[in-house]
Amino acid sequence: MKPGAGINARGWVKTRRDSKGIHFLQVNDGSCFQDLQVVVEDGVLPEEILARITTGACIKAAGDLIESPAAGQAVELRASDIILIGDADPAFYPLQKKGHSMEFLREIAHLRARSNTFGAVCRVRNALSDAIHRFFQDRGFQYIHTPLLTASDCEGAGAMFRVTTLPLNGPPPNDDSKGSDADSAEDFFGKPAYLTVSGQLEAECLALALGNVYTFGPTFRAENSNTPRHLAEFWMVEPEMAFCDLDDDMELAEEFLKFIIRYVRGRREDDLQFFNKRIDSTILANLDNVCEAPFGKITYTEAIEWLQKADRKWDYPPFWGADLQSEHERYLTEELFKKPIIVTDYPKEIKAFYMRLNDDGKTVRAMDVLVPRIGEIIGGSQREERFNELSSAMRLQGLDVESYSWYLDLRRYGSVPHAGFGLGLERMLMYLTGMKNIRDVIPFPRTPGSIEF
Ligand code: ATP
Ligand code: MN
């Protein structure tokens, strides 16, 4: 829009300042970080209306867009008229000019998208989602939709939420003798059902028909871990590729992370500058660093050796066979390598049944991408494509092979090496924005004991 052009602008008043008969309104419509300064002189509006244009009010301003004489903005709107669309009683409107704590903003999640920080989070979240689709679509991957309701009760990814229409108290009506399995027969699906922890198994079915696919949607985990990096409901993007081994998988994951960082930087430099200034002054330099340097690569066995050699006191002393804890992951990526790394070939006992067994018979073709500040951001693997190896791994992990016969069919008919990974959208957002708590990068967080809004 050229200066001098008559325009209309609608949005919410962030702040208001009055000086010598002139009123300066900072108005934002959510489209970008920068507010529009609307300048109204005394006499343009009835006193009674002017008095009600306060922080939080929604207005429509008409006037000329002119070059701003003051620093802070290139242009401003000289208002010739303002319509008050919805007022916000300053005695009650909870968002005021002073900075609010993240904890307080969480309590008013229905209004927090109007704060600078959360508005920026939402725009970066949108740009990131766009980047994800762009990356895969440009490479010929097909976007698939995997179900959220599932009967697979053990995908090895975490505790699940049970879904049922049975009455809350006691067994179904007319029969109080049945045990819980029998109860399930009366349930909606005729067997136990859950919210999915991952779309991977279904994505594998489609990859073995369509080639390269990705699913991108909500995921649920009932793990009772109240940490700053776990949600009960989060979004995950999961590509799955036929004719693909672990090396191809790692290469794709690295290319993917670099692409989405660059893309979001290109789209939302304004919001990222804000995060860099107000939340964490190292993020932009770190993101540049990620895009330039090749990721480090290390096997799990090497990682354990490094951890044991490290001169430090661990809460969980590392030993071969134990899962890597957050403190271990962060040491490896933040201090040893000082950049993102990919850890591969974990012991089979600590990974899911579907990962491909290595020739050593002890480790599987798993990979985790670890990044500074966050730890694990991507988890992936080459899948076990051999029928015998897969079915014995399932038996070893105590799975009901019968109920997974559809999954084994993929190995019976036209099996092929294939691989994939899962990226947690919110972990990626924490990485991009420097936000320290995962509850502050999703509009309405669900965590143990908390399901407001
Ligand atoms: P972690 O060890 O960090 O709990 P995980 O090994 O259980 O993660 P995966 O099953 O590998 O995670 O899931 C793939 C990705 O999904 C992870 O790399 C992470 O980015 C994300 N993720 C997993 N669990 C959660 C959660 N509860 N909340 C948010 N993101 C998650
Ligand atoms: Mn993992």
Write the layout of secondary structure elements.
Blueprint: E1 6-19, E2 22-28, E3 36-41, H1 47-52, E4 58-67, E5 75-86, H2 102-107, H3 116-138, E6 142-144, E7 149-150, E8 162-163, H4 180-186, E9 193-195, H5 200-210, E10 212-220, E11 233-242, H6 246-267, H7 269-278, H8 283-292, E12 296-299, H9 300-309, H10 326-336, E13 341-347, E14 363-371, E15 375-382, H11 387-396, H12 405-412, E16 418-424, H13 425-433
Parallel strand pairs: 3-5, 6-10, 12-13
Antiparallel strand pairs: 1-2, 1-4, 2-3, 4-5, 7-9, 8-9, 10-11, 11-16, 13-14, 14-15, 15-16
The chain binds adenosine-5'-triphosphate and manganese (II) ion.
Describe the structure concisely.
With 453 residues, this protein is of the alpha+beta class.
